[in-house]
Amino acid sequence: MKKIYLLLFLLINISAIAQVNYRFSGYVRDTVDGKPLVKASINIDFGKFGGVTDEKGFFDLSLPSGEHAITLRYVGYRPTREIIYLRGNIERNFLIRPLENELEEVIVSSKGAESNIQRPLLGVSQLSIKTLRKLPAAIGEVDILRGLQMLPGVTSVGEASNGVNIRGGTTDQNLLLLDDIPIFNPTHMFGLFTAFPSEAASSVEVYKGNTPARFGGRAASVMDVTLQQPSLDKFKVSGGISFVSNRIAVETPIIKDKLAIMVSGRASYNDFLLPIVSPKLKDIKANFADLVTKIFWRVNSKNTITASGYYSKDFFQTKLLGGIGAINATSTQYDYRSKSFSARWFYAISNRLNLQTTIVSADYVPKTLLPELNSDNKVVLLSGIQYKQVKSNLNYSIEKHRIEVGVSATRYNIDPGQLIPGTSRSVLSIQTPKEHSLETAIHAEDEIALSPKATVSIGARYSQFFALGPGNVQTYAPGEPRDAFSARDTITYGNGKIMKSYGGLEPRLGIKYSLNPSTSIKLGYNLMRQYMQVVTNTTTPLPTSRWKTSDLHIKPQVSSLLSGGLFHNLPGNIYEFSLEAYYRLTNNIIDYKPGADFLLDGYPETQLLQGKNRSYGLEVMFSKKKGEATGWINYTYSRSQNKVSEGTGFGEQINFGNWYAANYDRPHSFNASVIINQGTHHDFSFNFSYSTGRPYTLPEGFIVYQGRSYPYYGVRNNARLPDYHRLDFAWNIYQPGMKDKRFKSHFTFTIFNVYGKKNAYSVFVRSQGTAVSTYKLVVFGAPIVSLSYNFKF
Fold this sequence. Notes:
Layout (H helix, E strand, L loop, with lengths): L1 H17 L2 E10 L10 E4 L4 E4 L5 E7 L1 E8 L6 E7 L3 E2 L2 E3 L18 H4 L5 E4 L1 H4 L11 H5 L5 E2 L9 E2 L7 E5 L2 E2 L4 E2 L4 E2 L6 E7 L13 E7 L8 E6 L4 E10 L3 E10 L5 H4 L7 E14 L4 E16 L13 E17 L4 E19 L6 E21 L2 E20 L9 E2 L3 E15 L4 E15 L2 E6 L10 E7 L4 E19 L2 E12 L1 E4 L10 E4 L7 E13 L5 E18 L15 E17 L4 E15 L16 E2 L6 E11 L3 E10 L3 E2 L4 E5 L2 E5 L6 E2 L3 E11 L9 E9 L7 E9 L2 E8 L5 E9 L1
Parallel strand pairs: 1-7, 1-8, 12-17
Antiparallel strand pairs: 1-4, 2-3, 2-5, 5-6, 9-16, 10-11, 12-13, 14-15, 16-17, 18-19, 18-51, 19-20, 20-21, 21-22, 22-23, 23-24, 24-25, 25-26, 26-27, 26-28, 28-29, 29-32, 30-31, 32-33, 33-36, 34-35, 36-37, 37-38, 38-39, 39-40, 39-41, 41-42, 42-47, 43-46, 44-45, 47-48, 48-51, 49-50
């Protein structure tokens, strides 16, 4: 018994020695000015131990020996984490960083910590590329357009949509620029992925309210993507590998501090994975590649020259969309490419005055290939756009003025379509007349500081459009519908002759009044004219959809936007709140007649109608820009309605000339994004999206004829898809100890559509004999898990 007592006594003493406590003390101070932080929280081992600092910022704790996880928190400061090994008494001083001194990490209203309050602009958003790389993305691909859809007022018609709809506008009413290069098809794989190279992009600005006078040619918005400037003194490499594509970007100086080049490429040949993503994609063959380059030359202290190039190529094959006309094709193959270039000369005349001159060339060539049954021949449907532009801006800044004046000229050459039969004997060759036009513009703008509280931005753009020959214009009987029966004569115009011209003033106005240093109210108005648009009868335009310039019969779209808002920043510029309301009226929108077919039609005005669109809404957004957890939430109420009534006949009206919901009318939408930064090892992000289902046309009945049922359609867009909602998750895993190393890498694990919501992209009606059924097309009906590897050198 004595031996047992002795053994217990020894074990108790050994345990006491093993669990001996040591003193852990120190000071917590501000990293900027070193002031002590009173009542800062010290959390030990996730709440097992803890304490707070005194009035001198001092803490003194007793902890058992061993390893401990330390977390220090103080309101308005970034939490600090550290692992300590306690083998004796330790005194450790901590410096923690105030959030107001951190760089912003999320979408902000405009550049600068307080510019959303101070500048007289509404509806201007900047998308942080750094944040974009942390957000969840479909199949692991960083996507600028999907990031934009987390903004208020920005939606799409579905997961495979070819673009975005901004404040009730169509996809072609957005001017999409990449270093001044217009992008006519902004997606790969029919809308599954963006065509903008995120690896090479440095910033994205979206103007959905006030639009600077230097921009024109579109009725709804401007999205301006800038490629990063290559480093003049360091060699850099970045890239990544994912299930969908492989990408790389290289920057290298050619002449140090004088000349450098950046090359970024991306390619995807992993279409064998598509059936895994969705069974609906089992018959699809798809691949794409894009390449961007940028050269920066610092000629001297006053002159710089920048040149950018963009090339993309897509191939997409499917059996779902069928053939064209009576061509007996085994599949439909879409082969389209873009080849573009821009160059800019910047001349600093003085510290206050500079001149920028830019030339742009863009060539977009979409093709549809139809392999004939039992033949090696492919019938080709070919179209194209050639775009040439030269523009020059003069910028002048003085104490209370920021002045810009400029001129531009843009030439459009459009090939609406030609059918090339190849060796086929059953297909006739068709060539639709080509379209030639010229758009010229001058603009002036001045941002004036009227007082410390009031600032106004006033500007105007005057544009003039000329539809040019050679070409034939068909005239129609007055007061009758435009069709083959009312055609009366054809007027022929020679090369370069003006067939029709349009033009007018486009005023721009923004007013800001500060209620206090952190709160302002704003009003804005702008008018924009659009002379070039997509002609389509699908919800989301195909890459081969027809582009059409204004002519004698098709008038340009004219959009007037009135907006107002309240903007408030909380102290430290950590939190932002904004509320904006808008009303937009667009004249001469384009819609199609029932049963319209534009393909290879030499006179598409016989298939088109023009009317009005009214769009209005309220957007509320709250964001946290700095700290351990950043993100934003926003809610939008919006309506977009059309009214088309060119005459009294059935073929000249839509829905009897009454207002009806546009294809992209989604009254309610809610978005939330949260990024949780967990030190240097990993971060998590969540996206949640909800929106009202978009309109579609449901048959009002069916007619049975010779044993088959045929749908009967009355009014357009008389039903809605089910409401849309989706949750995404991303986890970025950084390798430890790489913070100060030249080579850095991390893995990104993503779950797209976490709870597998089967969101309907569209609803189709199918008839088999007299039986009629409807079915939903779902693109992503299950969770999509992806993993990508990213590196930077």
